[in-house]
Amino acid sequence: MENKAGEGKQCIPLLTPYKMGNFQLSHRVVLAPLTRQRSYGNVPQPHAILYYSQRTTKGGLLIAEATVISDTAQGYKDTPGIWTKEQVEAWKPIVNAVHAKGGIFFSQIWHVGRVSNKDFQPNGQDPISSTDKPLKPQIHADGAVAQFKPPRRLTIDEIPQIVNDFRLAARNAIEAGFDGVEIHGAHGYLIDQFMKDQVNDRTDQYGGSLENRCRFALEIVEAVVNEIGADRVGIRLSPFANYMDSRDSNPSALGLYMVESLNKHGIAYCHMIEPRMKTAWEKFECPESLVLMRKAFKGTFMAGGGYDRGDGNKAVVEDRADLVAYGRLFLANPDLPRRFELDAPLNKYNRETFYTSDPVVGYTDYPFLENTA
């Protein structure tokens, strides 16, 4: 039996050590980046110190929630930023708390592109994107319907400024004490809006061919690598996902081209979303897999999207991933690696409190194993 109470940690594939570039991880269970709308006025709050330190283990990797890189980059209320001095200073005690418990902490840097509204934009301007095609109304987790104004298509002259915003955000993340950054290139946000051919309708050097559509993403990778070093850089990609009306006609080719291009930059890891996660909440049976991309990528390969203990272990055993990112399960179980070790029952997550602004409820009040016994 795999999960006898007396088994050693080493028998559980997810709990075996792993070296990710310069980082020695004690296990392969990663805290996925999870949007939590509790950074009032876009400034990280002291309650995040407890939230992240609860989920920290010695030698465990955590990826912080999606963090806005500039005043044009936001599309949701109370998401944290990392473009002002005040924000950088507010992150420091949060990062310190994770480091005090021996954790490794990456910041996910993010621009939403057209997934925004004038309310979130400086001077009420239009959101920016690869395109001027509007996003269809989206139903949020709480059932509310979000409407979007048509975006403004970025001009070629403006693109270097956005690339630079990512570079500065990476520099600020290191200044705040983070060990590295994950570039958010997934889920229908700005970078994905350039990569996917169902969104990007440009006819310049940033549109049309696969190479052109990936140019923006790779310019950001290059700028961030040059700023903070390749060993501190990861990227999250979701070639198969259709979030926010962002789909591609040939996701396998897109994923493969991206990982082969990323190899030239020698980044620490590539974090890919499983094809079965077509939308934010549901798993679908599907024939596609990440195996080709896994084989082609030379760095650490992290998979995420609907994993439980069993298929996480299986992914490691079958060499389909080096690391597995857990979102909802890690949110509801701050001691998830410990529960996986003991094969203990898991707390159920409450979707209704994912995006509320309460500093405790649905945030730091999920019980640890010893408190439920």
Molecular structure report:
The protein is α/β, with parallel strands linked by helices and 373 residues long. It has helices at 47-54, 85-100, 159-175, 190-195, 210-228, 251-263, 291-296, 309-317, 328-332, 336-342, 369-372, and strands at residues 18-20, 23-25, 29-31, 61-63, 67-68, 104-110, 128-129, 138-139, 145-146, 152-153, 180-185, 233-237, 269-273, 300-304, 323-326. The strands form four sheets. Strands 3, 4, 5, 6, 11, 12, 13, 14 and 15 form a nine-stranded parallel β-sheet that branches. A two-stranded antiparallel sheet has the order 1-2. It has a two-stranded parallel ribbon with strand order 7-10. Helix 3 runs parallel beside helix 5 (210-228) and helix 5 (210-228) packs parallel to helix 6. The longest helix has 19 residues, at 210-228. It starts with 17 loop residues before the first strand and ends with a helix. InterPro entries: Aldolase_TIM, OxRdtase_FMN_N, Oye-like. One of its GO terms (molecular function) is FMN binding. Belongs to the NADH:flavin oxidoreductase/NADH oxidase family.
- Rg is 19 Å
Shape: globular
> Biggest sheet: strands, sense, closure?
9 strands, parallel
| Count of β-strands | 15
Whole-number mean pLDDT: 94
Q: How far is the first residue's CA from the last residue's CA?
A: 24 Å
Strand content: 5-15%
N-to-C SSE series? EEEHEEHEEEEEHEHHEHEHEHEHHH
Please tally the helical runs, counting DSSP H or I stretches of 4 or more residues: 11
Assembly type: single chain
Spans of at least 5 consecutive residues whose pLDDT stays below 50 are 1-7
Structural class: alpha/beta
Secondary structure: helix percent: 25-40%
